[in-house]
Every structure is written in C-alpha cells, then in structure tokens.
Amino acid sequence: MTAKIVEIIDEAKEIRSFRLRAEQEIKYIPGQWFYVKLDENLKHHFTISSSPTEDFLQFTTVFREESDYKKALWTKKIDDEVEIAGPNGGFIFDESDKTSRLFIAGGIGITPFRSMIRYAVDKNLSVPITLLYSVKTKDQAAFANLPYTRLIETEKDGRLDEEKVKRLCPDWQDRSWWLCGPPALVAAFVELGKKMGIAPEKLKSEDFTGY
Prior knowledge:
Elements: E1 2-12, E2 15-22, E3 33-39, E4 42-47, E5 57-62, H1 68-73, E6 81-88, E7 101-106, H2 111-122, E8 129-135, E9 149-153, H3 154-157, H4 162-168, E10 176-181, H5 183-195, E11 203-207
Parallel strand pairs: 7-8, 7-10, 8-9, 10-11
Antiparallel strand pairs: 1-2, 1-6, 2-5, 3-4, 3-6
C-alpha cells in the first residue's frame, strides 16, 4: 500500500525517523516490521519504532554511505510517497504476558523497544521493564530518554557486561531477556544469558543485519 511521509526527525548522529501515514488503517503489534519500497530496485525491511497507540507509522534508521537505499532515503522529503508491506515478525510484545522483561539493545536495535515501551506506557500496562541501551557515545543514541532506560556509553563506561547487567538490573535472573542489535551483540548476550543461568525459552532475540 502507499504511505506518505508526514515528518522527518533527526534523532541522533546520522539517525533519522520517518513518520508515515498510509492510505488505509494499519494494524500491527509492537516489535513487528514492514518492507519499505522506494522504487522498483530499492526495498528494505524496518522494524517499526512507533507504537500502535500513535497516529503514524514510524521507522528509524542509520545512514550508510555504502547503501544505495539509504542514500536515496536521505533525499526523501515531506509529502513524498513510499510503498509499504506488512506487518511481519514474531519478536513481539504480548500485552497479556505480565512477566518482567530485561531489554538489551545495541545501536539501532533500540527500535522495537521504543515501540514496546511507548505502547506499555500509553496503555498503562503493569509490565516491569528495564532497558539497557548500549551505544558508543550518547550522540549516537536514538530515544535515549525512553522510560525504563539505562544508557551505557561504551567509550566512557566500557562495554555492557555481566557486572553491569547485575548492577543495573538486580533482578535479572527473574526476567525474560529480549535482545536486539548487531548480530555480534545478540550472540554475545545469548551466550552470557546461558552462562548466567537464564533458561533458553526466556532468551528472545532479533538480529539487525545490514541496518
């Protein structure tokens, strides 16, 4: 379906959000993703960073000089149209599940958690959430002011590790772990979770390949 760009927001260094309004109502669950097609040759999938409680569909991404798609996307303006298809994906926020959650995000992997947290806040859901958000420096952090968030700047604080998880989320062992970001980060925290005794069914992950 066709959607129109209604707002473009510079969120952080080389990171932009694109807010869309579609020609018809769109229903999705926080954490799902859509394809966004710019033309016949340029198509990419993006996790939606907006919440179903908001009156727009938003995706957020980082610029890559080597990407023809990103270079074309950065030329888009208000009122330009794109084609979208979705929703897809099973890394989703089930509001009937009230168990505690530890979200761990690296870089642009913050996007599904922005959707989930915004939804939980807007719906006043009693779901305990802690988000540990790892970035190199604060100027590379989109949505750093989200509720429930602890920002880790690796240049200043060092890498997010077992000690920081235990200190920043003392009840880590009682939570399901939700991991999203570069594949290396996701793989590292899957292994760390297993090492720390988190049951495999409580480790949920999504890789952000290619951004």
